[in-house]
Amino acid sequence: MLLNDLLQKVEYEKVIHERNAEIGGLSADSKHIMDGDMFICFKGGDSDGHDFAAEAVAAGAVAVVCERECDLPVCQIVVKNGRRAMSEFARAFYGNPAAKMKMIGITGTNGKTTTVTMISDQAIAFQLYQNRELDEIDLNESTITTITSDPNNEYNSQLCEKRARPSAYAMHFNYQKNNADGTPDVNWNKAIANTAFRQCFYRGLNLKAWFSRYNKINPLKCENDYYTMKGLCYNTQGAEYTTLVAKEMGFDTEKYDGETMIRLRANGGDISALKKQAMEELSAIGVTFPVKATYFIIASSTSALDNATILKQCFSDSFGDDFIKLDVQTYVSSLTQEVRTPQLQSFVINGWSADFGDPINFLGQETLHDDNAFYSHYYSNIARVAEAPADYQKDLMDAFEQYTDLVNAANAIVNDTDARYEAFAKAEAYMLENVLVSPTYYDIAWSLTHANEYSKINAMYGGCNYKAVNWETSEEAYTTVQYEQFAKAFDQASQG
Hints:
Layout: H1 3-7, E1 14-16, E2 25-27, E3 37-40, H2 53-58, E4 63-66, E5 75-78, H3 82-93, H4 112-120, H5 122-130, E6 136-138, H6 141-148, E7 160-161, E8 168-173, H7 186-192, H8 195-204, H9 208-211, H10 241-249, H11 272-283, E9 291-298, H12 302-319, E10 324-331, H13 335-340, E11 347-352, H14 360-363, H15 374-378, H16 382-387, H17 394-411, H18 417-433, E12 438-439, E13 446-449, E14 451-452, E15 472-473, H19 480-494
Parallel strand pairs: 2-3, 3-4, 4-5, 9-10
Antiparallel strand pairs: 1-5, 6-13, 7-13, 8-11, 8-12, 14-15
Helix pairs in contact: 8-11, 10-18, 17-18
């Protein structure tokens, strides 16, 4: 997270030195500081953290939170109370996780710890739901399989598909990738700078099998063809913003059919011409095939490995092993410190959630010449490429410059909402046509529930969605048919 973004969410007295550093982690122990961390110091009973600030900086700290100014060459954030600041910075850094939690109050004299342990286990949680001790549970793939594999299972008629969580996931390419030894990965960098090569990802990568990991029953409901999250904002005519992008892309007449990804329908996913073009253009500048696309997952997660294994097969099925080959690697604990900072990834798949209801909140993260453009600096590294682009990166830089101009022009329209959104839609369509970023999926869960989530305000940012107040509930579990009706009514209302 950018330090400047972090400072907007906490209280402090003053800031000394530059505030544009990226913060990779937080620690109040100088012995645990790693490169890119923030060190938080305060006076304890036996020692004073300020005495160890210089040691923390020497270990790699790029910012120090302190109760008094210190003689240090890094950014210092002076606060009144270091202990309180530690909790505030931690809350802001980790995205205020308390606001996103579904809270269950467990009271009584005996059995509280046992109950908590039981609820965290899906099998036991399912049993509690059956006993009417829980009103709702989100189902994992295993539980859904158990239910759907038995046509006589009573819960088949009660499987409720929830609305997409308010994050749009995308494949963010790294345009300045390094090898493990720190040398530039020229083969990947040349390949990803080529427009036809990137277009193969958006127009030819069939992710249906991979979507099934996130939505086993209706995989293609997870398909994300846009960079901006659906439902973020609407024009004065009631049109949802991404429908404007769809019109620019020629997708406006395409609807979910459960069979084929929308963006693959024009050519059936056939990218043979694009593939041939990319291989010819890249072979001419020394690129060797297959191009290795390095993708990192956390080493401790079997679920991440399962997801990556399916994604690798999607690459093989879509591209052929002679063109692009997914290379799955692992990191131990920190994607930022172990992968992104040394620039080892070919791409990262992650989601962006809105801070406010306007397309600039999404599209502004990918522009050039803006220190607040998060992805440009810390994921794609296109800001670094812009400092000294190679000859093979000229077209890439031209595309990013054009995209930036389109975004800035749209953002300058402040007195006409419809014109503003139309201009942003053109900018987003340009991004997608040139595949500067490749959107991937929405996260859609299935549940068994006695609560109608369509009865509450659907806030695409802020904490409203996590407040369980004024929801319509039912003594009897809602059925699949009822939830489908709720969804249909919501979609109709959303489309104006």
